[in-house]
């Protein structure tokens, strides 16, 4: 699994938005967001760049975890 830190998430709705955006961009990613730690975990098979772009397009920031 790969992990990224997502900035700008403040509620469960934000977390769901991130998961939805990543799933749409990379269906094989199987994303999981932990709001408390502000982390996004996703499958090793998913393209990291595609996932980052999806998170940013959804309006959130990304940093390496």
Automatic annotation (TrEMBL):
Alphabetical keyword list: Metal-binding
Protein name: HMA domain-containing protein
Keyword Metal-binding belongs to the record: yes
GO MF assignments: metal ion binding
Alphabetical list of Pfam families matching this protein: HMA
Leader peptide range in chain numbering: none
Annotated HMA domain residues: 1-63
Cross-referenced SUPFAM superfamilies: HMA, heavy metal-associated domain
Recorded superkingdom: Bacteria
Provenance organism: Zavarzinia aquatilis
InterPro entries associated with the record: Heavy-metal-associated_CS, HMA_dom, HMA_dom_sf
Metal-binding listed as a keyword: yes
């Amino acid at each position: 699994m790969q992990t990224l830190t997502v900035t700008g998430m403040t509620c469960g709705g934000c977390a769901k938005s991130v998961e939805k955006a990543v799933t749409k961009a990379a269906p094989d990613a199987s994303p999981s967001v932990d709001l408390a730690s502000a982390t996004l975990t996703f499958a090793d098979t998913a393209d990291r760049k595609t996932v980052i772009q999806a998170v940013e397009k959804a309006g959130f920031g990304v940093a390496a975890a």
